[in-house]
Amino acid sequence: MKQLPANFIIGAVLVAFVVGVAALSLIWTPHDPTDLNIRAKFGAPSHVNWLGTDQLGRDLVSQLMAAARNSMTVALVAVLLGGSIGVALGLLASAIGGWVEDIVMRLADLGFAFPALLFAIMLAAVFGPSLTNAVLAIAFINIPIFARVARASGNQIWTREYVLAARAAGMNKFTITLDHILPNIAAAVIVQATIEFAVAILAEAALSYLGLGAQPPASSWGRMLSEAQTLMYLAPELAIYPGLCIVTAVLGFGLLGDGLRDMTDPRLARAR
Amino acid sequence: MFEMHEMTVRFSIGDALRDASLRIAPGDRLGIVGESGSGKSMLAACLMGMVPQSATLSGRLTIDGTDMTHAAEDLWQTIRARRAAMIFQEPMSALNPLRRVGDTVAEPMRVHLGLGKAQARARVQALFEEVGIPDPSARLRMFPHELSGGQRQRVLIALALACDPELLIADEPTTALDANVALKITDLLVHLSQSRNMALVFISHDLAAVARATTEIAVMYGGDIVERGPTAAVLGTPAHPYTQGLLAARPDPRAMPREADGSRRRLPTIPGSVPPLQAMAKGCRFTGRCAVERSECASVKPVPTGPRHTTCHALLHEETP
Amino acid sequence: MTLLQAQGLTRRYKLPRRTVFGTPPVLTAVENISFEIAAGQTLGIVGESGSGKSTLARMAMAFEAPDAGRILFEGQDIHALGAAQLRRLRPDFQMVFQDPFSSLDPRRKVGWSIAEPLRAMGVSAPDRVAEAFEQVGLHPADGDKYPHEFSGGQRQRIAIARAIITRPKLLIADEAVSALDVSVQAQILNLLMDLQETLGLGILFISHDLAVVASVCDNLLVMQRGQAVEYGAATDILNTPSHAYTRSLLTAAGETH
Fold it and tell me: Do A168 and C116 touch (CB under 8 A)?
């Protein structure tokens, strides 16, 4: 048995923690995260409120847990949505080639040049700020990324002799893509998805921080951070906790993705 | 003088090399022939002190009488490049694509021999001439991709010769090359061995190349040296059933392709395939594929017998009725 | 009867341009090559790397189109067919590839891979899969294993089973034994001869190794840098090579004999 890379182990532990907490918040939080209790505002950590309460007397632990769940959901939906569209486009480009490939890849270049934040602001300007728009914006930036990964690894698989054999057998390109290309690029796509998951968490936090994401009363690390900003001198811990959460989640998925890549492609690991 | 006495390389799944005995004197040209899994590359690794850490070594390996069997890595580093050098099958992947070939060849001279820039350059140029690279002063400024496969292999030979080794190990040096180029590289290795009085160990699965390059030959199967002796004698009158099978299986371009009745002439074959290391018989490794197999073959390891050190129970039985 | 006929095949590749305004350099991989294969006969193509022999194989398999010339399979120009027509014709000409480690999808059981050409025809016939396994000297139960569980020679047998399962008329073997050990190579060559005799296959056998080609072919095409150097009956060419290049290949191949 080969030894697992350190970044994989650390990443897996962090991810397990964050995902575990998010899952737990579905069935249990110490308090209702939206429960106001003005009399108990800026409460110090106690056996009732483990990390204390915020400026409105809400329980911090409960809020952080609910925010973890929201953050995971947004990242999951956005990466799944953007990833599937991107992979489908990439597979199409690599299966058909020629001008189809050229168009898909030029569009991908265009998408790359287009910042997610700008897209989210546009969506917010047209449809008003909402979590859905944040998800769409994050999904949108994922499309070109996955299209490129799928096309690049797909093109490699298309040159393999077993794909030539399938063509010789008379299989059409659609069947070959499903039978051979997709299963063999899955590893590369999963690695990329893990890394993009980290990016999506960060993007969600940023959009919520700017008020373009989760709207009150939904909990979000980014929004907690922005609300705590004005109270930095009064209660710095209100900013520190959500900040730490963001760092933990982003670092966890980032390391996990790097670790997976190192395991599936040791050549890349050495090159870096 | 490199001497190996009953060297065994043991891994947890089995022995990759068993009781290998060899003597390599200056100017010797020894061919090692075998198929994949025969242990021929492990034998080369032993001579270079490059056996994987996970293996256990037993037996005895000496260089000019010094026991190197369990020598430390830093002692081996004084041997490699300076006394024993190696070239490999794939000339492209053995060269750094981002370095000029002249710099690559000059590096060991500057590191091991402490030569200055100008001295090293002059030596590289001389070496390039020696290995038959035309217009050496221009070629040494080129990058690997600018050279043909044959020229890259010549560069690698020059690199191996950089510190004037006593022994050059060539592991499948011609396998990646076209037939005509392979012939020229083979002849070059022979010429270098003769002109420098340098020992040459030529490892290949290609019987034709080994026949051309060497005077002595060792045939390997499943980690055993099954037979060794003068090249012409071994290839002319093979003693071990494996050697016989291997020689017969090689197609002959001048043989008639059809029998008298019009059916196509089949090639003689060795039945089955090389088993994985963990599934090898404890006795003779050729058990299960052999035409003259005896009851003791699977369990008893045959003792090397006769002038060719042949390891075969059937032969032993024949000689001592 | 002529099975496959190549007429004046030429294939050029555009190389990446070197300067902004210059025309990109062109590599002529194959130039004006013609040959014929009859049913039950083997044509050997021999040449070194870069001689254009694999380009010929890809054109004969209709993986790529020639820039000039035609390839007729039983009189039909395969490059003039529509995609659907071509797919219907494909069961009649199959290919065995060089690398037994990359010619089988590592994620699929070999039984699945062998049945692939049948699925493409819309046929489901487990008995034919079993028959194909037996024809190449393997056991039908091996179909439940993955490619990595087999040796190189066994994988090449599996690749051959996949190629013959459609009962093709023509088999193209591109360096099909080059990656194998000598003792296994002879087994696979014999297997191809057996199959040719029982199935009446026409074979296009491509290799860089003249000795190997000589052992299986009736006719021989010697290629060098995209051009045909010699073409004719194998025994004639091998006994009285007219070209210096053929003679040098013979020297290189004949050392041990």
Answer: no
Note whether residue B79 is domain-resident: yes
Domain interval for residue A102? 7-15+53-271
The count of structural domains within chain A is 1
Structural domain for C207, as ranges? 2-96+170-256
The domain tally of chain C equals 1
In terms of CA atoms, which chain C residue is nearest residue A167? Answer: C63
A204 CA to centre of own chain: 8
Domain-embedded: residue C25: yes
| Residue carrying structure tokens 């370095």 | B99
CB C155 within 8 A of CB C98: no
pLDDT of B255 higher than 80: no
Q: Is the confidence metric ipTM above 0.90 for this complex?
A: no
Residue (of B229, B238, B249) closest to B289 by Cα position: B249
Q: Per residue of chain C (257 residues), what is the pLDDT tens digit?
A: 789 999 999 999 887 777 777 777 888 899 999 999 999 999 999 988 888 888 999 999 999 899 999 999 999 999 999 888 998 899 999 999 888 888 899 889 999 999 999 998 888 888 999 999 998 988 888 999 999 888 888 899 999 999 999 999 999 999 988 888 888 889 999 999 999 999 999 999 999 888 899 889 999 999 998 999 999 999 899 888 889 988 888 887 765 44
How open is the CA angle B234-B236-B240, to the nearest 5 degrees?
45
Q: Do chains A and B touch (3 or more CB pairs under 8 A)?
A: no
Q: pLDDT by residue (tens digit) across A203-257?
A: 888 888 888 877 777 788 888 888 888 887 777 777 888 888 889 889 999 999 8
Cβ–Cβ pairs < 8 A, chains B and C: 113
Tokens (6 digits) for B232: 């012409």
Question: Which of C63, C99, C163 is the closest to A167 by Cβ?
Answer: C63
H-helix or E-strand spanning residue B169: strand B167-171
Question: What gap in Å lies between CA B95 and CA C62, rounded to an integer?
Answer: 37
Q: Say if C252 falls within a structural domain.
A: yes
C-alpha span between A207 and A52 (Å, rounded): 26
Give the nearest chain A residue to C83 (CA atoms).
A172
Closest by Cα among C113, C150, C9 to A160 = C113
Give chains near A: 3+ CB pairs under 8 A: C
Query: Strand order of the sheet with strand B2-11?
Result: B14-24, B2-11, B56-63, B66-67
User: For residue B34, what is the nearest residue in chain C, using CA coordinates?
Assistant: C181
Report the predicted TM-score, pTM, of the whole model to 2 decimal places: 0.81
Q: What is the CATH number of the domain that holds A114?
A: 1.10.3720.10
- SS3 state at C230: strand
User: Measured between beta carbons, which residues in chain C are less than 8 angstroms from residue A179?
Assistant: 105, 108, 116
Pick A43 or C103 by higher pLDDT. Answer: C103
Residue B275 lies in a domain: no
What is the Cα–Cα distance from C109 to C92, expressed in whole angstroms?
24
Task: Please answer whether residues A253 and A72 qualify as being in contact, where contact means their C-beta atoms are separated by less than 8 angstroms.
Answer: no
